[in-house]
Automatic annotation (TrEMBL):
Superkingdom classification of source: Bacteria
UniProt keyword annotations, A-Z: Membrane, Transmembrane, Transmembrane helix
Region (Disordered): 280-310
InterPro entries per record: Alkyne_AA_exporter (IPR052756), EamA_dom (IPR000620), EmrE-like (IPR037185)
Domain EamA, residue spans: 3-130, 145-276
GO cellular component: a single term: membrane
Family, as annotated: Belongs to the EamA transporter family.
Protein name: DMT family transporter
Transmembrane segments: 31-48, 60-80, 86-108, 115-135, 141-161, 173-195, 207-227, 261-277
Annotated coiled-coil segments of the chain: none
Source organism per UniProt: Actinomadura rudentiformis
Pfam family of the protein (one): EamA
Amino acid sequence: MAAAAVTMVLWASAFVSIRSAAPHFSPGALALGRLLVGVAVLAAIMGLRREGLPPRGAWPGIVISGLLWFGLYMVALNWGEEEVDAGTAALLIGIGPILIALLSGYLLKEGFPSRLLAGMAVSFAGAAVVGFATADSGDESSVVGVLLCLVAALGFAGGVVSQKYALKHATPLQATTFGCAVATVATLPFSYQLVNEVADAPAQATLNMIYLGAFPTALAFTTWAYALSKLSAGSLSSTTYAVPALAIGISWIFLGEVPTLLAFLGGLLCLAGVAVSRSKPRSRAAVPSAPAAGTPTDADAAPAPATGQR
C-alpha cells in the first residue's frame, strides 16, 4: 500500500535527520521540538479539512498511544541512542514489530498467520545482521541504553495496538493529531531545555528538527494511521523492517556512507522478510469431485439419436 510505503521512507529519512540534530539537543528537548512542529502542521491540516474532535470512544486509545508511542517511544529512543551504538539500537527496536504481532494476535483477535511470523523471523534476522554490521566495536553498550531501547520497543508496540482501538472510532487524522497533542503536553517539562538549546544550536540542526516534526511525524504518522485503519496491526508492523534497509540507502545517497557488504545483505534480508510476511498463500484450484453413484451424467442426459429417420 502506498501509504505504508510513504511512512517507511519518511521514517528511514528520520535517522539521517536525528543524527544531525541529536548532538545539539537533549533527548527530551528534541522530542518536544519535533512534537511541537508536528502538532502545528497537523492542526493546520485539521482546520483545512474541518475535522472536529474525535468521538468519545476513541479517546482512551488516543491518550494511551500518545503517551506510549509519540511520547515515551521518542524520548526513550533518543536517550537510548546516546548510550548504545546505532546497530544495537536498531536490533533492540526490531523487537517492537514482534511484540505488536503477539499483542494484536491476542488482544485484537488477529490470530497468528504462519507467513507473518515466518516473515518477521527472516526480517529480525536481517535486522540482527544490520545491527552487527553497524555496531561500534570500540564502545560498550551500557545497560541503561539497552533498557531504554527496550522501553522504546515496548512503547512502540503498546502505542500501535492502542491506536488500532482508537481507529475504530476516529479518523486517521484525528488519531494522529490528538495523539501528537497528548504527547506534546506530556513532554512540556522539557520546554526549558528546548528554549536554551535552540538558542545555541546551529541552523542546520534546528532545520532538521523542523523536518522531523513536519514529515516523519506529521505526515508519516498520518499515513501510518491510514494504513493501520485498513490493515491488521501485525501485518502492517512487519513492513517497518524495511526501515533499516531504506535508512542504509538514504545514508548512502545523502551522506556518502557506503554500506558494508554485511549491512547490505542484512538490508536485503529485511526486505525479503517483509515480502514473505505480506505474501498470500496460493489458492488451490478446486478439483471436480466424481459424480455420486446413480447421478445422471451429461451423457446420460443427452437425448438418444432418433431411429428410422426419413
